[in-house]
Amino acid sequence: MEEKVVETTHVDDRGRQLYKIKCADCGKETEVPFKPDGRRPVYCSDCYRKHRPRRFSNRRF
Ligand SMILES: [Zn+2]
Q: Cβ(21)–Cβ(31) under 8 Å?
């Protein structure tokens, strides 16, 4: 078995490919389990939660 080392990306413990990105909001370098298309801003997990569109807001206050 050969082990190939990929420098730009790696795979997390669930076997997902991770891509290094720079958060478009806070500028932090992080990794995301999807390939950035280069057109849309990519956020770290914290900022992603803030920017995530709330399509299913069924909460009643
Ligand atoms: Zn961020």
A: yes
